[in-house]
Amino acid sequence: MHTDLSPHLHSLECNQIIEELKKCHSENAFGKFLGVCNGIDQRMVACLRNERKIRQQLNREKALEKQHRVQQLMKQQSQE
To answer: Rounded mean pLDDT of the chain?
Structure first.
């Protein structure tokens, strides 16, 4: 099961792979069950994984910045 494949949630690169996979599935109604589109699916999974890793890193950096700001505010309040 994949994450939501809506175009507004993904990069241009991943959207192109997603469209390619959808096209493969529509052209190979029965073959998709036999693995005809597996190569494209693996590329899509790799692309989505890379996007998730980038989002995780950005969120981690934001969280660290927020923690640092909170610690600074707590220091200031304890000194007053």
So the answer is: 93
